[in-house]
Amino acid sequence: MIQKTIILILLILPFQLFAQSIDELILNKKYDRALDRIADKIQEKPEAELYFKQAIVYKEQSNPLQACKSLEQALFYDPQNSLYLAELGENYSSLGNTYQTVDCYSRAVDLSPNDLSLKAKLGRAYMSVDDFTKAYQTFDAIHKVDSSNVYFNKQFAFAAFRTAKVEQAIRLYEQVISENPGDISSHLNLIAVYKRKKDVEKVNSAGERALSVFPKNQTILLRQADALFELKDYEKARFPYEHFLSVSDSTFEVMKNYGISLYFCKEEQKAIQILEKCYALVMNDEFVHFYLGLAYKNLADYARSAEYLVAAIACAQPVYMTEMYHHLGQVYGNNREFEKSIEALKKAFECNNERVEILFEIATTYEEFDFNKTLALNYYSIYLKTAGEKAKNADYALTRLRKIKEDLFFEKK
């Protein structure tokens, strides 16, 4: 009896397998058999739905190129089907064909204008081709219909940020984070938005809030530290840099920014220690040389300071050379090397003739370099004439002009 039952099952089984529908084969992940069945059906009678199912199988097999070809065939038979267009857009996106993705989603939205999910895909497609204006308009339209969807609001916030609508981006990101605090990318983006607004306190508090959810997260620490550094709040920047370096490998840029922050926090010895490590890693970075020079200048080690400032100038891009020559001139002056000081200060003014106060420093240095009062007199005059109403030290310069003229008059007698 058992043998007869087994034989009966074996006889029936092939017919049952054959009787399985294409949908069941796909559902059960029997993709090759599903493709064979679809190919047979297409041979009998090509239809849009068959090509669509074929595309679904190819997509499941991670073959988006073949999926696109099948969907193009589906649209040949049914060109007004928004579902097929959306699926084609998704497969184009997988291939990196961003402009074709935009075209497909745009046509799909035209056919199904009330499908917010489809509109969101179009908005993201616009972002992928850096058309943030259209992305903003798309998510703005979605927001007018549904202002509570966290996913839509997150995309809208990013589009607002990239179109310089900073206040709106802040409101949206704050709402997204309050509803979904585990979204790390929104925390990071909110820090970036507050940095764009140049709001140091909000950058710091946004970073602290993110770290309360993701303690010691390296990405958050670095985003917070770099933002505070760029906003020149070195006192606040130093702490996330310290925490980052305590949980992550040292990198040149991070150590450099940390060392510079320590310099501005008036911790010159510690700054020198960090920046000299940077120097060992990269020997021709102008900022490492420059801030080492300034740190040694503050510690009154003028020989070492001049050494590093000269090296900074040798590496520097023109835009930074004024500041570097200016500090070098001051260092030489402090070290009573007046000829070198005047030469460096003149170079600083040559690099940027809008820095008129350097002319005043040249004049005062010539006075200290006391054998040449005539040159001091000339530079005070040049300073007052060049700076005009902008002269910060006009009263002192006028007083010195009168005094030097008197001295020169009596010397001639």
Protein described:
The chain has 413 residues and is mainly alpha-helical. 80% of the residues lie in helices and 0% in strands. It is built from 24 helices and no strands.
**Rg of Cα set:** 35 Å
Quaternary state of the chains: single chain
Low-confidence runs: 1-19
The share of residues in extended strands comes to under 5%
N- to C-terminal separation? Answer: 144 Å
Q: Choose one word for the global shape.
A: elongated
Instruction: Give the helices and strands as they follow along the chain.
Output: HHHHHHHHHHHHHHHHHHHHHHHH
Helix share, percent:
over 70%
What's the pLDDT, averaged over the residues?
90
List how many beta strands DSSP finds: 0
- Which structural category do the helix and sheet elements fall into? mainly alpha
**Largest sheet data:** none
Alpha plus pi helix count: 24
Features:
413 residues
Describe how the helices and strands are arranged:
Blueprint: H1 2-19, H2 22-27, H3 31-44, H4 48-60, H5 64-77, H6 82-95, H7 98-111, H8 116-128, H9 132-145, H10 150-162, H11 166-179, H12 184-196, H13 200-213, H14 218-230, H15 234-247, H16 252-264, H17 268-281, H18 286-298, H19 302-315, H20 318-334, H21 338-351, H22 357-368, H23 373-387, H24 394-412
Structure, briefly:
This protein has 413 residues and is an all-alpha fold.
